[in-house]
Recover the amino acids of this structure.
């Protein structure tokens, strides 16, 4: 099993699912990161070679960098929403 992460702009959450690559199925959705509204809305993400999540925040003027456990490591400020 591997984890899959998806953003939901409407809820402001990044969800994690269990992914069974042999069966091609996902299950067990839970909130991995609940982004405060004041930080903008998570709107897309990528995962780097260390398993860290980089999430763009719509209307948040930032990209947030989280570790594999969902702890915020850094914020990259952007000159755009």
């Amino acid at each position: 099993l591997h984890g899959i992460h998806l953003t939901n702009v409407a809820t402001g959450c990044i969800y994690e699912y269990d992914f069974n690559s042999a069966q091609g199925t996902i299950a067990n959705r839970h909130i991995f990161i609940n982004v405060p509204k004041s930080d903008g809305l998570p709107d897309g993400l990528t995962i780097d070679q260390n398993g860290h999540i980089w999430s763009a925040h719509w209307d948040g003027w930032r990209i947030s960098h989280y570790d594999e456990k969902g702890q915020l490591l850094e914020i990259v400020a952007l000159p755009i929403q």
